[in-house]
Design goal:
single chain; about 300 residues; alpha/beta; Arc Repressor Mutant, subunit A; D-Maltodextrin-Binding Protein, domain 2; 5-stranded mixed sheet; DNA-binding transcription factor activity; transcription
Amino acid sequence: MKVNLRSVDLNLLTIFDALVQEQNMSRAAEKLGMSQPAVSSALQRLRLTFKDELFIRSAAGMIPTPRARTIHDKVQESLSLIAAAISTEGDFDPASEEREFTLLADDYLEMVSFGPLLAQLAQLGSGLSLYNKVPDKLDFGSALRRLEADAAIHFSLPEDMDKLEGERISEEPLVAVCRQQHPRIDNELDASRYFDEAHVSLIRSDQEKSLLEKALGGGVSVERKVKLYIHSFTAMASVVSHTDTIGTMPITIAQTLAPAYRLKSFPLPLDINTIPVWLMWPSALNSDSGHRWFMQFLRDNSAANSLSE
């Protein structure tokens, strides 16, 4: 059924967008520059408009209903297009702008990249800041399409690149790490020893290959004796430092963690490729001069090794 838009207060859509992104009434009100009662009143009107509860209160915050998530995909893209259509902005000036850029990046990039990136941003403009959302590794493409972030940095591209852009910005070798007092690994690590030892590996889905499998290429599956699957490289380093296990990780994170956890690292005794690091962003943001500036900033700092070395 066709809706008469004159009967709908389109200002409610910006409030709806903020509520979905923040999933918290107070934070949404602060972001919008409105009072909390005014946002609460707008939510009631939104519920009447869409004939749905839209949000369910929980201990974790305001959880969007399935219908709210479906609506939000279209609303957010529409708001972005409207903003681009009426924008009269010129070139983005980092020295005078106030803007928070949002990334989707995992703990690896948080640890090795965000310090240098933030330091460089501070030199370019005091009003610039970063916010990182740890991505759902299975669905960060959808998060970008919903415009929940300016960009994602990951070791692989999503299968569905519809409405997304992507480019390779750096590459990373893999290394093996073990504790300094490992009883069977001294000054070198060969392939036989690598596969004989127990391993700690990152958790992955049945559909996603490990970093090692990606580096080997093709449909190769690596049969290691994995004794523990874990969520982060930092946790991997901690477990490896207390056990006679091996971890496999990018060289930059190994160089960062090895001194703190008393690890030693070795080149992988396998014929492998380096791991590509990909920058991805929503095509809908290409007309935003601030976003274009930020993408170039990430490229430049990748070339200067702040993202990969």
